[in-house]
Amino acid sequence: MATADKVQHQVERIADHLERVQLAEYVQLLNSPRKLIVSNLIAGTARGVGIAIGVTIFSATIVYVLRQIGALDLPIIGHYIADLVESVQAHMSGGGFYY
């Protein structure tokens, strides 16, 4: 049991040391606004690129699946958009909305 106690003590000491080092790095980051801004800029850019790639893959998959099952009828979508544009133009010219 003495060996297990030594190992437990060593693990606790290492965990305490790592916690102090991480806290010191965080304080150092807060004291350097330039590093903080650059780090947040890189993180935000990476997050944005990741979201863009994810949405692209997801959308492409949905379109592919809909085309395979024949449910994607682009002329219907085109007619809907044309009706929407006509409604907006009528409203902008003072004619109000029509259905």
From TrEMBL:
The protein's name in its UniProt record: Uncharacterized protein
One Pfam family of this chain: DUF5665
Domain of life, per lineage: Bacteria
UniProt xrefs under InterPro entries: DUF5665
Keywords for this protein: Membrane, Transmembrane, Transmembrane helix
Membrane-spanning intervals of the chain: 41-66
Organism of origin: Paenibacillus antri
